[in-house]
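A.,

Following up on our hallway conversation. Structure tokens first:
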């Protein structure tokens, strides 16, 4: 009994033993990471932190579900973790290699690693937030080796290029990766291979989730010159021919919600012989050489596409089972540049604009609907928030961001039955979200009110 009481006391007070450390040199950073315990917070001061070893930083300690280890930039700063001194094209030269669980890494730039900027190799329940991965010699961020349940939130990966001019992706959730990894609010551009690569080897029938992610002009280098890589935006999967000669059979199930693919050198959404189940809800594609590419060879098992738009030629849509309706090419309407607030300003300029100070995506007029668009209320209910009589087609719901008065508070007669909160891009958020919130309240009278409020 005494032992049980002591264990309970330790568990209840463990968070009190957590420490906060501020580091300002590469040695201090490495030491703080190597000695971190559950609940610790490591603040990284402004500056450049240079590493030349392979990997540059190896994380071998774990937090817990209730007390993760936090590694983040001092507020208002943008530290650069510089791996440019690593050997190039060295498969062991990851900038940071994370093999453990329950870390929250926020606000850091991972620059010019000899391989991946950050590799999550077998770690679980990690959150990587508001980080940049650029000019690395392989994929900016890669998840593999059985890693599961990792969240990549509001991160950018760009200008990654390998020595062969063809293999570096923005984000890679691939090869031996595990289940239930998620990307939310992330962007990937001008990587020589793909924006996102889901190619599998040594694993099967796993699922990855993408929400509010943008991929554009992949297959080009930093200066916009075409490379030799695949040049796809979202590569949903694919796999090797097995050793016994069996054709490509591995299944990488993927869900894309409000995702955008623009100007990629080859395909916007690419199936690449993926045999899994693929879902696209409220997605958009434009100016890719092929906007949607789900071929008939080694086809996807179930392909579901709803409420999505393509400006230009759609591409190929094949699967063993198709569930495709209420889209701009088969929903009785057509998407064109006049449906949107701003299709004249460079799409590259809009999509690559700086993020907001909290890390959220910039406001984007490229896919925001004008008041008289025939895409409004032409979708079907797939379980996502919408404002009118039916969902709109495309990534931004018109009624959630347009022509809504800015007020500090509101009152309404009747019994409140439901309240939802959204940011300006239409993404549902928590009530504690700071900034401008769209608040949708439903009452038992059938009345629905939508207001824009400032939440400080």
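Then the amino acids I'd put at each of the 456 positions:
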């Amino acid at each position: 009994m005494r032992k049980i009481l002591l264990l309970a006391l330790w568990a209840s007070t463990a968070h009190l033993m957590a420490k906060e450390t501020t580091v300002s040199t590469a040695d201090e950073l490495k030491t703080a990471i190597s000695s971190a315990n559950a609940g610790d917070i490591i603040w990284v001061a402004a500056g450049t932190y240079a590493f030349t070893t392979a990997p540059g930083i190896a994380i071998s300690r774990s937090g817990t579900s209730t007390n993760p280890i936090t590694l983040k930039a001092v507020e208002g700063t943008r530290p650069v973790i510089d791996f440019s001194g690593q050997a190039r094209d060295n498969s062991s030269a990851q900038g940071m290699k994370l093999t453990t669980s329950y870390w929250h890494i926020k606000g850091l730039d991972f620059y010019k690693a000899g391989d991946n900027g950050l590799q999550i190799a077998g770690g679980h329940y990690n959150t990587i937030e508001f980080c940049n991965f650029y000019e690395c010699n392989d994929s900016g961020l890669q998840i593999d080796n059985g890693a599961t349940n990792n969240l990549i939130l509001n991160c950018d990966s760009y200008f990654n290029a390998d020595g062969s001019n063809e293999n570096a992706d923005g984000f890679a959730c691939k090869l031996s990766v595990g289940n239930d990894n998620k990307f939310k609010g992330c962007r990937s551009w001008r990587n020589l291979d793909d924006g996102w690569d889901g190619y599998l080897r040594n694993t099967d029938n796993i699922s990855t989730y993408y929400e509010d992610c943008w991929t554009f002009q992949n297959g080009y280098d930093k200066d916009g010159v075409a490379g030799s890589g695949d040049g796809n935006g979202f590569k949903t999967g694919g796999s090797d021919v097995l050793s016994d000669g069996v054709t490509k059979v591995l299944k990488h199930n993927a869900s894309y919600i409000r995702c955008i693919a623009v100007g990629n050198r080859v395909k916007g959404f690419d199936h690449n012989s993926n045999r899994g189940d693929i879902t696209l809800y409220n997605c958009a594609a434009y100016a890719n050489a092929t906007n949607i590419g789900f071929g008939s060879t080694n086809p996807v098992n179930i392909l579901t596409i709803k409420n999505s738009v393509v400006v230009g030629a759609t591409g190929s849509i094949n699967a063993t089972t198709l569930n495709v309706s209420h889209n701009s090419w088969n929903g009785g309407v057509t998407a064109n540049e006049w449906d949107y607030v701003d299709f004249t300003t460079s799409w590259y300029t809009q999509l690559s604009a700086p993020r907001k100070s909290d890390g959220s995506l910039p406001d984007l007029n490229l896919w925001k609907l004008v008041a008289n668009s025939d895409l409004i209320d032409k979708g079907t209910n797939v379980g996502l928030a919408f404002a009118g009589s039916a969902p709109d087609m495309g990534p931004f719901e018109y009624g959630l961001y347009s022509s809504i008065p800015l007020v500090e508070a509101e009152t309404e007669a009747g019994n409140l039955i439901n309240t939802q909160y959204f940011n300006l891009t239409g993404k549902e958020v928590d009530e504690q979200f700071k900034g401008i919130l769209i608040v949708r309240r439903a009452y038992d009278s059938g009345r629905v009110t939508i207001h824009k409020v400032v939440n400080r």
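The first helix runs from residue 2 to 13. Curious whether your intuition agrees with the design.

B.
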